[in-house]
Amino acid sequence: MSDNNKEQMDVDQKFCDCEINEIDELKTPVYAFTSLGKDAFKALLSAMEIHLKEEILMNILSRLPVRSLVHFKCVSKFWKTLISDPYFKKKHLSHAKNDPNSQKLLVSQSSLYKDDMYTFCCPLSSVQLVEDVQKLDFPLNFKPLGCFLFCCCDGLFFLSVYDGLDEHLLLWNPSTRESTVLPHPERPCRYDCTYGFGYDATSDDYKILKIDGPNGYEMSYEIFTLKSGSWRNIDKNHNVIMFVPTHAIPVMDSFAFVHGAFHWLGITSFSGFTVVSFSVSNEVYGEVTLLEQMRDTSGIQHDRIAISVLGGMLCYHSSQYNCQQEEGTFKLWIMKEYGVEESWTQLFTIREPGLSSVIPKYRFGNGEVLLSCGYSWGYGLIFRTSRGKFGSWPQCDADIYQEGFTYTESLISPVLLT
Q1: Distance (Å, whole) CA 243 – CA 210
Q2: What is the pLDDT at residue 19?
Q3: How far is C-alpha 381 from the chain's CA centre?
Q4: Where is the F-box domain (predicted)?
C-alpha cells in the first residue's frame, strides 16, 4: 500500500470517529480532500448528522402503536411535524401490517329490543386479553339509532350512521378518532347495494366502489375517489352477471380488495360461477377462474357463497344448511398464487349443528381462521376460530346483533384525504 493511500485511510478513520467540533483539531484537514471550504464542510456534516438522527428517530417511532404516537405529538413541534408527515404515516402503516399487535377487530353491536348501539375494539394478538377490549365513541356528536360498517382499508372504515332522520356516510379512523362526512352517491343507496374500499397506488388515492343489486336487469355502478370528493358512474361488466343470493342479508358482504382490484362473485351463461375483478387504477374488468368443483351451480338456493381476503390471498367460501338434519357445512378455499387456477386449495371443512352462515375474517399466524358465525337458533353472530372458541372476545347475548371487521391500526387521516 502506498504512503498516500495509507494517509487517506488514516484521515477517513479519524473523520468517522470525530465530532463536528473536533474537525479543527485534525492534523490533516478533512475538507482538503473535498471541493468545499472548512465552513461549508462543517455545515454539510452538521446537516448530515441531523438527517441521520431524524432517520433513526423515524425508524424507532414507526414501530410504535398509534395510541402512543398520538400522545407523542405533544412532546414537541418537531415530533408533531414528523408524526404528521405523510411519508412517516406510510412507513408506520407498512410496519403495522406485519405486526400482530397492530391487528384489531372492530365490532358494532345493536340490541333487538332497545335503541342501543355500541362500537368496540378488540386486539387479535394472542398476548392481549379480553381486558384490552375498548369501547369507542361514535364519530359524530350524537348517539346513532343505526350504524352499518360497509368496508375498511388501511385502518379507515367506510360506514353509514342513521340519526333518526338522515343517513350519513362517513370515513372513520377508530385508532385516531378522526372522521369526515362523505357525499351521497348520485343514485340513492338501496338495501341491496354492495361497497368496496381500496387504495390506488398509481394515483396515491383511496377509492370506493358501489354496485346496486339488480333492479329488474339493471345494475348501477359508481365509484368515489377521495381526492376528487365526488361520485361518478362507470361502465358495467356486460359479460358476467353479479351473483346476488335470494336469501341474502339486506346488505351483502363487501367486495374483496387484493392485488389492486376489487373482486366479487359472478355467473356466466357458459361456465357457471366465476370471480370478477375490477382494477382500481385503470378500471378494467377481469376474471379469476374457479376450479370445476367450485363452479358447480347446483344447490344454489341452499348455499351462501362469497369471496373474501385472508392474509393477502383471495378466498372462496360456502355455507350450506341442511334443514332436515339441522346441520350446517362450511368450506373454505384460498388461492395461494393469485390468478393461477390450479393454486386454489381447500383449507378446511366445518360441520356443526345449527351452523347457518359463516364469514371468514382473519387468518392468524398459526393457521387458525377467525370466523363470524350465524346459528339457526340465534339472532346475532358469534365470533369463533376454525378450531373453537375465540378467547379474545366476550360472547354477547342472543338478542344482540353484532358485526365486525378486522383492520390494521394506522395514522392515515380521513380528514386530510378529502
Answers
A1: 15
A2: 42
A3: 21
A4: 46-91
